[in-house]
UniProtKB/TrEMBL annotation:
Lineage: Bacteria, Bacillati, Actinomycetota, Actinomycetes, Kitasatosporales
TPR repeats: from-to residues: 48-81, 182-215
Keyword set, alphabetical order: Repeat, TPR repeat
InterPro entries (UniProt xref): Cell_synth_C, TPR-like_helical_dom_sf, TPR_rpt, Ycf3
Organism superkingdom: Bacteria
Gene Ontology biological-process entries: UDP-alpha-D-glucose metabolic process
Pfam families in the record: TPR_11, TPR_12, TPR_19
Protein's recorded name: Tetratricopeptide repeat protein
Gene Ontology CC terms: membrane
Length: 330
């Protein structure tokens, strides 16, 4: 879920002390803002806006339980859309997706013209796998406020239903609105990969990488596209950058190791596999290819011992390990 796009609220009738606290908040001075809100509440304990804003500051500081209490106090005084939206986001951050969806649904009822509530609702519904409802929420948001981010979000739901052509169309529309929107390029690349248009996918993903070189997602898809295009050396470079950006990404480390093995670089493969196994010691795919790397390095006893251990188990790689042992014996 994206970060809440709301801001601290004020009304034309707010007291000057509250206006000053909001100003601190908008400037990023959370400590000053919290002190201001608490001063307002000391004088007016039932000020729903101050309670909501103090809850927002608490959530920004990671104090989610405190934020829930403050939002609920605000809502007990005044059932406002902003507090409902904020409470929904915090419930989701605490892992309560159902509670978050309920709050955000209420926010859309209270403020049917607010695209943020529909957008955040769509994200939570998507996380729950309620794809049709997520699509409907994002279509509501788009009807209120068009933009590349919402079109990209809608394309995510559309693609999840298998309507890849329609999803690609939405992403092209998003990029017409903003050709520099990296998330749309990344999503377009993923959709084109699924459609089998690997060359176009590679171009889209290269654009996504250019716009956000530190995002590992497009790099992984780009590496896979390059492999499909037979551009193995370039794929190795991308996987290398990927494990640099995401050192705990064991899957990409194993993929990189497999490429090293296929190119005869067993020592480099073994380095990557050992790192992958530090993160997941029971990863049978990493263990199997570690055995293959050990064989290439002439460490046959270690390789056979590892292959036997995999073969004796019931993991996905057990059959391959047994076959490798048979091939060696024959």
């Amino acid at each position: 879920m994206t970060a809440p796009t709301d801001t601290p609220s004020a009304t034309p009738s707010t007291p000057p002390d509250l206006d000053l606290a909001v100003l601190h908040h908008l400037r990023g001075d959370l400590e000053g803002a919290e002190a201001g809100y608490r001063a307002v509440l000391a004088a007016s304990p039932d000020n729903a806006t101050a309670l909501n804003n103090l809850g927002f500051a608490a959530a920004q500081s990671g104090r989610f339980d405190e934020a829930v209490e403050l939002y609920e106090r605000s809502l007990a005084i005044e059932d406002g859309a902003t507090a409902r939206l904020n409470l929904g986001n915090v419930r989701a951050a605490l892992g309560d997706l159902e509670g978050g969806i309920a709050e955000l649904s209420r926010a859309t009822e209270l403020a049917p013209g607010d695209p943020t509530a529909y957008d955040n609702l769509g994200q939570l519904l998507m996380l729950q796998g309620r794809i049709a409802e997520a699509e409907a929420a994002w279509r509501h948001a788009l009807a209120i406020e068009d933009g590349p981010r919402l079109r990209t979000a809608l394309a995510t739901a559309v693609a999840a239903t298998g309507r890849l052509g329609e999803a690609a169309g939405l992403l092209h529309q998003a990029l017409t609105l903003d050709p520099q929107f990296g998330a749309a390029w990344a999503q377009l690349g993923a959709v084109l990969l699924l459609r089998g248009d690997v060359a176009s996918a590679g171009e889209a993903l290269a654009n996504a990488k250019r716009l956000d070189p530190d995002d590992p997602g497009p790099r992984r898809h780009l590496a896979l596209a390059l492999l499909s295009l037979g551009r193995t050396d370039e794929a190795v470079v991308e996987f290398g950058e990927l494990v640099r950006l995401a050192p705990d990404d064991a899957t990409s480390r194993v993929d990189l190791a497999v490429l090293h093995l296929s190119a005869g670089r067993a020592a480099a493969a073994l380095t990557q596999l050992d790192r992958a196994l530090e993160a997941g010691p029971d990863d049978d795919r990493a263990r199997l290819h570690r055995a293959f790397a050990l064989r290439e390095l002439g460490r046959l006893a270690e390789a056979d011992e590892l292959l036997q251990a995999i073969a004796d188990g019931d993991g996905e790689q057990a059959d391959r390990a047994r076959q490798a042992l048979v091939d060696e014996a024959s």
